[in-house]
Amino acid sequence: MSNKIYLSSPHMGGTEQQYVNEAFDTNWIAPLGPNVTGFEEALESYLGNEKHIAALSSGTAALHLALVLLEVGSGDEVICQSMTFAASANPIVYQGATPVFVDSEPNTWNMCPEQLERAIIDRLKLGKRPKAVIAVHLYGMPFQVERIQQLCKAYDIPLIEDAAEALGSTYQGVPCGTFGDLAILSFNGNKIITTSGGGALVCPSEAHKKRTIFLATQARDQAPHYQHSSLGYNYRLSNISAGIGRGQMEVLDAHVALRQQMNSFYKMQFSGWNGVAVFTEPDEKFVSNHWLSCITIDASITGFSAERLRHAFSEENIEARPLWKPMHLQPFYKEALFYGNRVSESLFDSGLCLPSGSNLTDEDRNRIAAVIDQFR
Ligand SMILES: *Cc1c(COP(=O)(O)O)cnc(C)c1O
């Protein structure tokens, strides 16, 4: 059997180990240290726009602290994109708050502005002012930034931007991760860059960053003994992991370009194929890092389903996966409120994520093309 081809696997650039070795050589194994600061500085200079970034143990932790900073608590409602990874929504429940899910729109697969406004108006009518909106750049595709920002501003609701999949994507030339009142990044093993596990909270001020770091390191007050006047968390990124992140930042742009080339590869493979659409930017305002390349298949035209193609890949030891199953269809969230139609549901029924890593080889691409050819 040939090697397994993964959807997205870690791709080291080369200098990661040097940064990690430095941490060993200086015995800076404990959390914090020069790699954490260096990684944060690299991210701040990459995103620009005067953002202040706190490196954390995961993207999920970053979302949790975003909600804590916004004082989301028991009885509150938070609006969240339904079509996403569960980690976008779960921290709402950690805080004892209630998620209200909103459907996608077909161009970006992300939060539908019309359904968002419907949800906001409806919740306000019931005297339930949403405490925040969580919008996601799914698969690296920017959401409808202008319209979502406009709505959040008009109704005075903070926007949390889940950019876990979108480091390296831009909207109107501005990097994703800089649009929300707060934004989160993820450096999990399958993401565009990895620290083996990690995340970050993108803050609007140094004061927000300080507060985030304070909360992420057990909320210790200034005192010789252990004194706490707030509830703390153990969410800081370690100096070892941050060393991997520093090396990864050096190859981020190159790896984004390679993912975008994978997307072009799929466009070629499926060009002129009725019933198969490669997920692509709606217009030139949107630039996706194409973290994952995805397709939708209209089985009534092609005669085969996404599931059949997935099985064919699997038989050749190639990983392909259905799209994110919307949260309003998840057993855990079956009681949750949902504003929408069937957009995310039908994407889930017809879509497929294809191998997209920046480390795929010509041989890998040939194996992938051979499977696709079976369906021609
Ligand atoms: C990966 C991911 C997260 C969570 O990040 P972790 O670092 O794995 O905790 C959140 N939201 C989205 C959309 C993600 O893809």
Description:
The longest helix is centred in the C-terminal third of the chain and has 31 residues, at 239-269. Strands 1-9-8-5-4-2-3-13 form an eight-stranded mixed beta sheet, sandwiched between helices. The chain has twelve helices and 14 strands. It has helices spanning 16-25, 34-47, 59-69, 90-94, 113-125, 145-154, 206-216, 239-269, 299-302, 306-315, 343-350, 362-373; strands at residues 52-56, 77-81, 98-102, 132-136, 159-162, 170-171, 174-175, 182-186, 199-203, 276-278, 286-287, 293-297, 337-339, 351-354. α2 (34-47) runs parallel beside α8 (239-269). The model has no long low-confidence stretch (mean pLDDT 96). The chain has two domains: 16-249, Type I PLP-dependent aspartate aminotransferase-like (Major domain) (Aspartate Aminotransferase, domain 2); 253-373, Aspartate Aminotransferase, domain 1. The chain is α/β, with parallel strands linked by helices. The structure holds pyridoxal-5'-phosphate. Pyridoxal-5'-phosphate binds at residues 58-60, 84-85, 87-88, 136, 162, 164-165, 186, 188, 199.
